[in-house]
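Fold it.
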Amino acid sequence: MSTAQPSSSPSPSPLPSPTPTPGAPPQRPARWRAILRALHRDLGYFFFGVTCIYAISGLAMNHRADWNPNYSVEKRTHTTTPEIAAQTPLTKDTALALLSAANVHSRYKKHYAPDDRHVRIFLDNGAATLNRADATLDIELLHRRPLLATFNKLHLNPGRAWRWFADTYAIALLLLAVTGLFLLRGKHGLTRRGGLLAAAGIIIPAIIVYLNP
């Protein structure tokens, strides 16, 4: 009695290796794009803080016609007695007592009477006006915005060291702009969608300049 031998399935043949096209240069990875991507990334990280400083202070100073970007203004009125308001001339001690009663702690500088009805009192961070007729003290004080005023000062290049750092940042912005053009390829790259956005970013400011000579 003969036993049937199990049939062995044929092993798959290896896939043929692609043959290079005659005369074509060997394909290499786009190393320059990786370098640009790394440069764009590192510059973005390093200048993150100063970018926030210039962005915030730029917004603040761009609207300085509508508000004071460096100081907040406190205005209030204090009512005093007719006897104090009528004192002529107003002495320094009386002016100091008047300020203390109005809860004004700014340092007194000087005072003078521009006319018979008013006395101007000058302070370190503001001024007060005494109206003799209605015995009121109109107070106007300036309070420095703690962080924003510092950002605005840096935006205006307060010293030589910051000027060099700001110049370096300006060059870095140019590098960020240029390297950003080549980070992507294909439909989102410079030759298609990216190019349209870049062109729009140039055309819109040009139109604004043309309409506002």
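The radius of gyration is 36 Å.
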